[in-house]
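Table 4 source record.
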Amino acid sequence: MTTHLQVNDASVAVSGNEEVVLSLLIPFEPKITSKEKIEANLRQMAARAAEQLQNQSLAPEVVGQMMMHLQVALAGVEYNNQKKSLAIKVTPQGAKLHYWNMPVQETIVVGNSFAVRQLAARKRTEKAYLLLAIGEHFGGIYLGNGPRLSRLVANSPSSDGATAFDPSPSAAIQRAVKHLDNALSILRRSYRYPVFVIAPGPYLNCFKELSPNAETAAALIEANPHGNDARLQQLMVPYLADWQTLTEKALVRQLDEALQKGKLAVGITECWTAAFEKKGQKLVVEEDYVFPAYLDQKNGVLYADAIPMNKDARKSTDAVDVLIEKVLADGGKVYLVRPGVLSGHLHVALSCY
């Protein structure tokens, strides 16, 4: 696999016998950001890119040529685009713009190939979730973003004499749980986020028995919320700290749901075919998974690297990087997960339209 240089690492230079490639990733979103602000950001990124190139062992004319191509590319940015990010590949021969449909963090990479995997890993993630909290004298549903909570639904269930120590849920507990669970089901149509539930034992047991949302909840937390936002934030701390594990479990669950619906490609060959048929919606791939291969550029056929035929006529590459780039180019989403998370899905899976 081609080794990319790390961002801001001036101590490692590109070898003179390898092509230098500058990869940039820039937040875009012209729908909500003014053109003037985007242009100012692009100028700043170009200045930092020039500095990065100058820190490599490159001839000044190569740096100048690449910066010229970058400036021409930036002049051609389409501001009527509804995408969320702009990826740019620059070589001494030219530059190419890629519009991606995912929020990102600014990134500059200098290496000897387009650093699509590193750029995809720079997706901006927010710890967004739905939180259902219910107790004897309180109930509500919150939209969470990290420690911040915004109440979407408020309810004050009447306990009809039931307490958190009742051996079985009362009719009042069932009514309160059903009411909030119905609201949760409606909200999940708009907010496709992990769901957490905080409740005392009887309420939590009732939720498990009655709610279709219980099976897919990220966590069921037995505690009394007391109707206090500070208390809820405190209870969520350990779950927010291990957000990556929660996200990966949710992604695997979504892949399994797509599989049951017959809308999942599994393994590099199936994913490759689906992506080049423009069916790719959500690609999930282990971050260290590579598949060296020869590509038939005419019809998109993938040949394993071990097949010796016509090697001189094909360029060996990492098919996973090409797959990531293809899905992003067609408006799909890409998620990189830790090694082993997709062991049951041959290391890469693609949910399809």
